[in-house]
Fold this sequence. Notes:
The protein is an alpha/beta fold. It contains 14 helices and eleven strands.
Amino acid sequence: MIKPAKKSWKKKLVLVLIGIFFGLLMTEIFLRVIGYSYPDFYTADYDRGIALRPNAAGLYQREGQNYVSINSAGLRDREHATTKPPDTVRIALLGDSYCEALQVSMEQTFWWQLQQKLEACSAFKGKHVEVINFGVSGYGTAQELITLQQKVWEYSPDVVMLLVTTNNDISDNVRDLKKTDQIPYFVYQDGQLARDDSFRNSKGFRWRMSRLGRFSSWFRESLRIVQLIDYVQFFAKYKLNEWRTQPAPPTTPQAPAKQVAREASVENMIYLEPREAVWKEAWQITESLIAEMNREVRAKGAKFFLVIGSNPIQVHPDATARNGFASELGVANLFYGNERLVKLANREQIDSLDLAPPMQAYAEQNKVFLHGFGKQIGNGHWNADGHKVAADLIAQHICRQ
């Protein structure tokens, strides 16, 4: 009697395992049929810590919802030949998530629209304009300089355009503010700016570069059901954080200043003249990196163009909201970081454009939010309107030059 019981138990276990496998298989097939995906667009990079994964594609759902594809060179862009075609002006774009712009379609990005707008102006008559987007989310100026040195020049650009977003680009350049040891930094050693690649020895980076780590990434990208589990975890964490912080994002241009201030307070030090040593260091390194970038671009015979982006509170359409937030911080305006970068550009003889003031004027005049999507309108990255206004302003500036 015992043996049959054992056989019965084993048989049931086999049936359960077959049922689970069949259920997972059907779920995987169903997710593929409906086109569901939640991929990881990033991979470990030996020089920059992280980079876009070549040929990655799928649905981006963290802010808005948009289908994204990465080209074979690991750029959020269409395919580009390395050899520059005749009668073509090439612009290499460096930046972070505002350039990568996963939140909108490629055709809605400012850099895609910029090509068409520049070809329409007399300064580029008879020329084809090609903007190549090297932007990657989370990049600081250090990673952007390394990208310039190692990835950009093979495309022979005529112009290198750097988009700086003061919201986090300054803090991204110092480990104590960025709070990660898995990316490269630049530090001062004996009065000289030196590259710190110690991230390669970090446990996290070594795991991602290991065979097991790469297999784990491959496994995740191969199975939609694993991607669904990842999304559920992300969504749960997002909702939990939303409940804890009780955010109340503005839904109209007349939103009260207090709500916007709560959202912007995470990075509010960028609106103040630095007092702490770590912020002074962050600014010093950032300015040195931009100056170094300018020198390298000039040495290659190209032109360097610095564009300074906007933060949500800076271009809030309600002046009461902006002024209320500035008052809470004890500052006269919210443009300290932007103005400091413009002064740097003037010292280094860099062509520059600060987008924030004219974008603020546009938002206030048209009562429109240029940042955010859905329930988070007014917070986050540029939406389609923000990209369009940025493209218009950049094109007008370049055409005047």
